[in-house]
Amino acid sequence: MSGARILLVEDDAILRDLLRRNLEARQHLVFIAEDAHTALTALRATRFDLVMLDINLPDQTGWEVLRIAQREGCLLPQMLGDAGPQLPVVAISAVRASLSRLKEFPLLAYLPKPFPIEALVRLAEEAGQRRRVSNAGNSVQVRHQPPPNTHRS
To answer: CA 56, CA 54: separation in Å to the nearest integer?
Structure first.
């Protein structure tokens, strides 16, 4: 699969299934978490290219998931040797986020519900592209060859 590895954290079954089907149709590998506990377990165990995180979860808020994940290092760059920014997180919520929350957590995007699915799909496509570029950069082998002989006899 050439798409992004995405952790989709959403407690609403209908929206979760709709997002999952749209992402999988575009060749993304989607991992599902219905609550904060499952999301944190997945973040601790698996490397993702993108996290799509609902803020209003049944057991904790998405903000608390981010706080714990940051403290535990789960949001650090996911590719070995990657010096880039932290793991991209897209927050999705039916409730407006305060400016202080948005400043506290460096999000790739904040999407208030309802949002166009294509916006989320576009963010997933960008994550898949970053993954492909990163993988290509990690697999490039540089061969050291002596310079061509410039002397003519």
So the answer is: 6
Taking alpha carbons only, the member of 131, 134, 128 closest to residue 81 is 134
Where helices occur in 26-92 by DSSP H, the ranges are: 36-45, 62-71
Contact 56, 95 (CB under 8 A): yes
- Cis before 114 (ω within 30): yes
Distance in angstroms (rounded) separating the CA atoms of residues 81 and 150: 37
The helix or strand, by DSSP H or E, that contains position 118, with its residue range, turns out to be helix 117-139
User: Which domains are assigned to the chain?
Assistant: 5-138 (3.40.50.2300)
Q: Taking a C-beta distance cutoff of 8 angstroms, is the pair 117, 22 a contact?
A: yes
Q: How far is CA 102 from CA 25, 97, 111, 118, in A?
A: 31, 7, 12, 22
Distant-in-sequence, close-in-space partners of 1: CB < 8 Å, separation ≥ 6: 27, 28, 29
Per-10-residue mean pLDDT of the chain, 153 residues long, equals 89 96 96 98 94 96 95 70 69 89 88 92 90 62 37 37
DSSP 65: H
pTM, to two decimals:
0.81
